[in-house]
Amino acid sequence: MTKKPILTLEQVKEIEKTYPTPFHIYDEKAIRENARALKDAFSWNKGYREYFAVKATPNPFILKILQEEGCGVDCSSLTELMLSEATDFTGSDIMFSSNVTPVEEYKKASELGAYINLDDYTHIDFLAENVGIPETIFCRYNPGGKFELGTDIMDNPGESKYGFTKEQMIDGYKKLMELGVKNFGIHAFLASNTVSNEYYPTLAGILFELAVELKEKTGANIKYINLSGGVGIPYTPDKEPNNIKIIGEGVRKKFEEILVPAGLGDIAIFTELGRFMLGPYGQLVTKCIHQKHIYREYIGVNTCACDVMRPAIYGAYHHITVLGKENEPCDHKYDVTGSLCENNDKFAVERMLPKIDIGDYLVIHDTGAHGYAMGYNYNGKLKSPELLLKEDGSIQMIRRGETARDYFSTFDFCDILKNMKYDD
Ligand SMILES: *Cc1c(COP(=O)(O)O)cnc(C)c1O
């Protein structure tokens, strides 16, 4: 699939008069269309709801768009809960899927009336002692071993820190019932960024069978099954994107095969997608400011891993388009690098691209999820602003860029930097 920039060269030149590069850009129309396609794919399930994983793109303007499309939010920290509260998500709009959870975070989730999703058996006592047990609770399941689709090993739950074992699920449900729980949910996240229409249906099959077993062995009233995140996006242009309609139908088939005959046909399906909701609908726009010719050819851009970390930490591929040169041959081999004093700060390694000149704009694709959100301030680098291309074609700033004042603000308790001079 060809990767299309959200903005044309002309639009970027116009935007730069107000918001100089680098900036993150999000596409409102595409975000809404995708959210609607997801909702439609699961419309066969009466209680279906998507709880957007806030950590993927923690921006209140983005959360508002998804809220208008009917989504709730999935949080796993205090600040994510605060952000959700401030953007008017309440009670059952919020799923709290955390791990290694501090007391204050459970307290906040409980205060908001969020669905609490326990990551561990020992958290039953922890929650009971510190906060109290709610009427509805979720438990996160980890089947151990390897998670396979056909002959492909997708991920390794046996090595992952999350969830309850099968025995702990059974004991946990019994214990929670004694503590007054009336309604149960099951949650699992077994593989990340799956570009396969089989992941959700396979996961659903595992969780639906578990639900039947749990009901038989504990008598628990299971109302929700949360398939969590993990439906991925193709970062490379040679891959086909997932077909959410086929995925929804695949889950429906398992539902009808396993849950309906067991008398569990009223179970509501939840999802907690992050990457699938936002990944392709955000891009980082940057400019070539240096070229360097040593043992390789280097293109130096005016951003760095502080805006998008995935290439640096995972060696992840992010497609790059040189604006205005979309149709030129990719006959030059470049490393596209940022300015950190770290040699992993490369957006592309030995990538074939059109000939790049200083001043050319580069679009780094698929940064809408786990992009800005993962950014950091190493080398004292400041994160770029986030802009939204609205449905009417206008541009709205949805987060300003960081300033030096922001960077030094954690010293505001003392005078040691009192002579600091700021440009802003
Ligand atoms: C990260 C995460 C998600 C979202 O994952 P994606 O891969 O972005 O879909 C959902 N649920 C939990 C608990 C997570 O940690």
Per DSSP, what share of the residues sits in E-state strands of 2 or more residues? 15-25%
- Cofactors, ions and other ligands in the entry: pyridoxal-5'-phosphate
Low-confidence stretches: none
Mean pLDDT: 97
Number of strands: 19
What is the helix tally?
12
The separation of the N and C termini measures: 43 Å
What structural category arises from helix and sheet content?
alpha/beta
What attributes characterize this protein structure?
9-stranded mixed sheet, 22% strand, 29% helix, single chain, 8-stranded parallel β-barrel, binds pyridoxal-5'-phosphate, 424 residues, alpha/beta, 12 helices
Notes on the structure:
The protein has 424 residues and is an alpha/beta fold. It contains 12 helices and 19 strands. It has helices at residues 9-16, 28-41, 60-68, 78-86, 103-112, 123-130, 166-178, 199-218, 244-259, 275-278, 310-314, 404-408; strands at residues 23-27, 49-53, 72-75, 94-97, 115-118, 136-140, 147-149, 152-155, 183-187, 222-226, 268-271, 282-293, 297-301, 320-322, 332-337, 346-353, 361-364, 386-389, 395-399. The strands form 3 sheets. Strands 1, 12, 13, 14, 15, 16, 17, 18 and 19 form a 9-stranded mixed β-sheet that branches. Helix 6 (123-130) links the parallel strand 5 (115-118) and strand 6 (136-140). Helix 2 (28-41) packs parallel to helix 9. The mean pLDDT is 97. Bound molecules: pyridoxal-5'-phosphate (PLP). The site of pyridoxal-5'-phosphate has 18 residues, from helix 10. Pyridoxal-5'-phosphate is lined by residues 53, 55-56, 74, 76, 97, 189, 192-193, 228-230, 272-276, 369.
